[in-house]
Amino acid sequence: MGRGAGYLVKALHGAAFVALALAAARPVFAQEPIAVPSGVAVQWFETLRDTQGPNGLTIRFRFIAPDVAGPDYDPDQAGADLEALCNGYVIPRLPEMGPQPAEIVLDLADREVPFGEPNEDAVQFFEAYSVQDGACVWEFY
């Protein structure tokens, strides 16, 4: 193997390592569904920790549940589902050290929607919470 070929193999090996590292950093949807009162299958999509809301540091947890767009899902149930997600999924995942969020915003959608981009076809529910005594407290959003 010539000198140039050796460099090419090393470059390809490094590129494969970077591709694997990036793939590992992306959310994996093979996780177990998160239980909510309505019974729809909910999965975590992403967490955004670097956003500033009107009340200070805001952490956003985004979830996907395709069935929220279906005819059997009662939109009035979304509030209870989001509160269950906040108390059962979000609270245990908040940082124990460092700056604490002034606000937690949850998004429950029927599909992936890039943050901040409107999508008129998507069904999305949003709620905001503060944390008091280790529990989520609903805030006007």
UniProtKB/TrEMBL annotation:
Signal peptide: 1-30
Species per Swiss-Prot/TrEMBL record: Rhodobacter aestuarii
InterPro entries: DUF6497
Annotated protein name in UniProt: Acetolactate synthase
Keywords: Signal
